[in-house]
Design brief:
Strand content: under 5%
Largest sheet: none
Number of domains: 1
Distance between the termini: 36 Å
Oligomer: single chain
Helix content: over 70%
Order of helices and strands: HHHHHH
Length: 137
Amino acid sequence: MQAVIDSLLSGLPYLILHLTVTLAMLAIGAWLYEKITPIRELDLIRAGNVAAAVSYSGALLGLAIPLAVCMAASVNVVDIVVWGVVALALQLAVVRLVEAVLGGLWHRIEGDEVGPAILVAAVKLSVAVVNAAAISG
């Protein structure tokens, strides 16, 4: 039992550090996402727009999935940050690509149409899974 307690005490500070760094990167990624999207999804969500909630949920999960894989596959905080920045850059680039290819969908999300929001969320999540797999090697 003492070995388990010793392991917990020695590993817990690393767990807290890695989790804190990764959550901070997720918060930064969410903030950047909100800044680069053509609509203000958080404001729309506060106003009761379900489509914006679906799209934003896809964005958050799309950012979190590759960051989680970065944390799991990394050996230290620097590794988490380096690969986390790459993961966030790729995910945010996809947002810009989606905007360029499917630009009209943003206005439909703004109009609370759920169908386009599901499509946008699915694209974000699909890219996140592929991004995470690429990061994990």
